[in-house]
Every structure is written in structure tokens, then in C-alpha cells.
Amino acid sequence: MKVSFYGRHPAESETKYMKQCLASSLETDGFFLKKLLSEAGKRFPSSQCLFTASCSSALETALASLDLEPGDEVILPSFNFPSAANSVLLHGGIPVLCDIDRNTQNLSVADVSRRITGKTRAVIAVDYAGVAFDVEALRAVTDEAGLVLIEDAAQGIGSAYDGKPLGTLGDMGAVSFHHTKNITCGEGGMLLVQRQKYFEACRMYRLHGTNRASFLAGDVKLYSWCRKGSSTALGEPSAAILAAQFEVLSEVTERRRAIADVYIERLACLESQGAARLMKVPEKAEINGHIFYLRFETERLRRQVQEYLLSREIECSTHYVPLHASPMGKILGYGEKDLPESLACGKTLLRLPIHSQMDLQQAECVAEQVKRGVNHGM
Ligand SMILES: *Cc1c(COP(=O)(O)O)cnc(C)c1O
After folding, report:
1. Ligand 1: distance of its center to the CA of 161 in Å?
2. Is residue 323 scored above 90 in pLDDT?
3. CB of 232 closer than 6 angstroms to any ligand 1 atom
4. Is pTM, for the whole model, over 0.90?
5. CA-based end-to-end distance of the chain
6. Rg (CA), the chain
7. Ligand 1 pocket, 249 CB below 6 A?
8. Distance between CA 260 and CA 356 in Å, rounded?
């Protein structure tokens, strides 16, 4: 049974909204962007929201508001996509890589504490697989040290922690609508700002460093260049697709969670067998089924299971080469053995297919083939 790794969930209103959009002037922050903002106002009532061209550009927008000075440091996990580290570099800071927790693959709060210096300004916490980082423990550390907490909730749409949506757990949070994420407009992102203190700077950065947003709101007579900026707004055609995608978010999340439930039930035996550990969901975390992963005991067993699944047309995938072990990590001065848990995770983690276009029978079949692959390999 062929099972693909990704599956885009088409939304019924997409075509209608696109037609309506094409009949407009495509002006930035137009009708569909406003529709998105009203949707975000309902879903994230405690945050101010800026829709951006990508999650990467949302992170850049957030970092711009910190006004980093040369030598300022920002701590973030090595087991991550490069976007957060790039956003620090692009604004003149130094990304300081930390290790991860072996249960959640999110940053290790103990390791963050060890890396805080007089130069540390912020921490960027990732919600890997749409599972929240250790919120209470990290907040205690960042509050104590007076650090800004930025959440890389790229994978977090539809997930929550203690009833709060991911992206709203820190001072600012970035979400992705890239084509690989649960809902998508091809390329797109969202920055959720919980502190008024940073909002105005983010809003200006997004519109070329100008106060155009205040001008459009009628608060200033002319708009002009006010601070360092870029162009990171989400375009109107993408906003039209994303507005339609938000309408299917709960359905997508439910379907993905149901697939995760099948994997959890059918693959628990791998833990007792000592072959692999299943992804762990902390008590207060609610997942969105963005990723389902296993961490095998050895790199060899992972390779064997991966090859076994691929030979049966079941697409599965490893994930990041940890940043510290990448060519850029070497340039930044890291050695491969510096962050052992991140390195081990990069070598032993395998992601199984999970998306709304799969049915439960396919999930059962994938689980069965994983077990066969393990027995074949052991
Ligand atoms: C997808 C992803 C990104 C990048 O998102 P874009 O919208 O493509 O910029 C960044 N960080 C993490 C953890 C991601 O999963």
C-alpha cells in the first residue's frame, strides 16, 4: 500500500476566494489580510498578529524589534531548522546553540541555564512536532535572567499548552504556513506578539521600516522611514488561500490526531521491546499531529526500518542534521560532539507519514510495516 509523506488538505473556499482576490487591486493588507486578522483575533485574543511571507520572515521581524548590539547572544536549540539561527545572524547577534531534552527533542532548560552570559538577550524555543517546550521551567529561567522569550512555533498551528495556543507562550511567537505544514498557502507565516513593547517595531519592520500602518489607521498625516526595516508582509493572493485554509484547520487537526492515536496504540510495543521510543506528549500539551516520530535505539536500526518502509512504498523521513554539526555550525566554531543529545537525535529519529489525506487503515498498515521492519532489522 503506497503511503505518501505529505498531503495537502484542499479547502472548499479556496477557488472562490482566489477569484474574488484576483478581481481586486491585490493591495497589501487588503480584504483577505483583514479577514485573516479577524480570524486571528478570535483564535489568539491575547496577542497582536502580523501575517508575514514566511515563518522565517516572522522570526526576522521579531529579532529586529530587539535592537541587538554586536556581541549580543541568543540561545536556541541545535536540533532545529536554520531559520531561527539565521534571524539572529541577520540582525547582528550571535546564535548560541544548546542541547535538547531526549523525551521531547525541545531545548533542555538546564542546558539553556548553563549557556546564559552577561551578553545573552533572548532565548528562541522551538515546539518540535507541534509539542510545546517546557514552558514553566523556561519562563522561570528567562524571567530570572531578564531575557526575551521567542517561540519558534513554526509547526504549532492547532496545538496548545495548558489551553493556550502555541505561538502565544513567549513574548513573541512565529508560525509557518509553508507547504509542509498542517495548513498552508504555499509560503506564509504569522507573528504573534504578546508584548506591546515590541509590537510597533515589528509592525514597522514588516512595512519597510515605515509607519505606514499608523498612516493607514489615520494616526499620522504622512508616512516615512522610521527604523531598520524590510518587506515581510504576506501578499494578498496568499492571504486569500490562507483564509480558506483556516476554515479547515479543526478538521485537519482532528484527522492528524487520529493518525497519531493509531501509531501510539500500535507501536507502544516497540518501547517494551527496547527498539525505539515513541514521541512523548507532556501532560498539559495538546498536539496537532504535525509530525509523528520514533527515536530508534541505534542509527543502524533506523536505517534498516527506513529502507524497509521505502521498499514497501511507505514514505518516511529523517529530520535535521543538528545545526552545530552542519557546515555553518563548524564555521560558528562548534564541534560535532559538543551537543550529544542533538547529535544522537539527528541520527536516530524517523518521521512516519501523517496528514489529513491518509485514512486510519493506511496508518494501521504503516504501523504493521514498522514492526516488521524492526523485527527484520533486529
Ligand atoms: C517550517 C519551519 C521553519 C520555516 O518556516 P518557513 O515558513 O518556511 O519560513 C522554521 N522553523 C521550523 C521549526 C520549521 O519547522
Report:
1. 20
2. yes
3. no
4. yes
5. 24
6. 21
7. no
8. 11
